Amino acid sequence: MFRLIGIPVRTLDDWENERRTPPEWTERLVINEIKRLNKIKMEEKEMKNNEMVKYLVHNEALTVTDVTVFDTLEEANKEAEMLWDHLTYSEKKDKDNRVYVLDVRSSDLLEDAIDEDGNIDWAANSGGGYVDGRFDSDDLEV
To answer: What is the pLDDT of residues 114-137, one digit of tens each?
Structure first.
């Protein structure tokens, strides 16, 4: 734990062997940091247990792939259809201009998808695509 909060090993050793006494404020800081780290860990465990799901709209029709996150499949499908409808006929014919919805579960998230403040980057995932009824421009006839 001391490594996570940045306490040098020698300092910790001095404290434990009573060669030095930490200031009172240090104890409060360490306790608060331990509580914060525990809260993040508990939220990560809870999220994995609850198996949260988000719906990502991938728009590969842009020069850089754009990903937008939605809470419901309906919202994501609407957005994907709107993006697809705004493409020209020739853009739709180009198979590199794919627009699709991907459902991602919390268990699909990569280790670094959750930052130290508990914010989630749903685009940092290892897969998805479990739900039927997702919009995918590859399924359309152009």
So the answer is: 888 888 899 899 988 878 889 999
Distance set, CA 131 to CA 36, 62, 104, 142 (Å): 35, 25, 9, 24
* Residue 36 parent element (H or E): helix 24-50
User: How does pLDDT run across 34-62, given as a tens digit for each residue?
Assistant: 888 777 777 666 656 667 889 999 888 66
DSSP-derived secondary structure letter, 87: S
E strands, the chain, are: 53-59, 66-70, 99-105
Q: Which two tokens stand for residue 120?
A: 């989630």
Residues 115, 107, 39: CA angle, nearest 5 degrees: 45
How does 6-36 read in b/e, with b if 16+ C-beta sit within 10 Å? ebeeeeeeebeeeeeeeeeeeeeeeeeeeee
Pick from 133, 137, 131, 126: nearest CA to 97: 137
Q: CB within 8 A of 104, min separation 6: which ones?
A: 53, 54, 55, 56, 122, 125, 127, 128
Residue type, 106: S
Please report, as a single letter, which amino acid is at residue 12. L
In contact, 122 and 104? CB cutoff 8 Å: yes
